[in-house]
User: Which sequence fits this backbone?
C-alpha cells in the first residue's frame, strides 16, 4: 500500500478524551500530552493512531494501531478523616488496653501514597491515650483512676507513608 522507502507519512490520532495528540516527525510519530492527567480522575486512556501516506494525491491510511496509556500515581492527596471530630465515652473503671473507639481516615492515592498511619500528637493532653498506628483504634495506655474523670481532648494525625498529613481532635 505505501510506496516503500520513498513514502511520506504523517500520523493521525483519534483520542475521544482529547488528552493526547501526535506530532509527526518524519517516519516517527511522537505522542504528546495536551491536557493534565490525574490517576484519581482517569487511570487508563486508550486511543488509536494511524499512519497516513500523504505525498500522493490519494491518501493511503494504515490499519489503526491501538495505544494504551496508564497514568501512574502521584502523592497528591492527604488522608481525610471520615468525621471532623470524634467523641467517645469511657467507663471510669476501664483498664489498660480498653478500646475507646476508632478513627478512620482514607487517602485516594494508591500504594504507599495512600497507606494511612495514625499518630497522637507528640505531647498528648492526657497520658492515658494510645493509638494503633495501622487501625486508628484508640485505647487506654494505663488503668483509669478517679482523678481521670472529666473530658480529655487529644489530636490524632493521619499520615500517608510519604508524609502528607491531616489532623483531627
Ligand atoms: Ca494520586
Ligand atoms: Ca496520599
Assistant:
Amino acid at each position: 500500500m505505501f510506496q516503500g522507502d520513498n513514502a511520506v507519512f504523517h500520523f493521525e490520532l483519534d483520542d475521544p478524551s482529547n488528552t493526547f495528540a501526535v506530532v509527526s516527525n518524519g517516519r516517527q510519530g511522537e505522542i504528546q500530552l495536551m491536557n493534565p492527567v490525574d490517576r484519581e480522575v482517569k487511570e487508563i486512556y486508550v486511543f488509536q493512531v494511524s499512519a497516513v501516506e500523504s505525498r500522493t494525491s490519494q491518501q493511503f491510511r494504515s490499519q489503526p494501531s491501538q495505544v494504551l496509556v496508564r497514568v501512574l500515581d502521584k502523592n497528591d492527596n492527604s488522608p481525610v478523616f471520615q468525621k471532623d471530630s470524634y467523641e467517645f465515652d469511657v467507663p471510669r473503671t476501664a483498664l489498660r488496653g480498653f478500646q475507646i473507639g476508632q478513627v478512620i481516615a482514607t487517602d485516594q492515592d494508591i500504594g504507599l501514597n495512600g497507606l494511612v498511619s495514625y499518630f497522637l500528637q507528640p505531647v498528648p493532653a492526657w497520658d492515658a491515650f494510645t493509638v494503633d498506628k495501622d487501625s486508628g483504634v484508640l485505647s487506654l495506655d494505663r488503668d483509669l483512676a478517679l482523678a481521670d474523670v472529666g473530658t480529655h481532648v487529644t489530636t490524632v494525625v493521619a499520615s500517608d507513608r510519604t508524609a502528607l498529613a491531616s489532623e483531627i481532635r
In short: The chain has a mean pLDDT of 89.
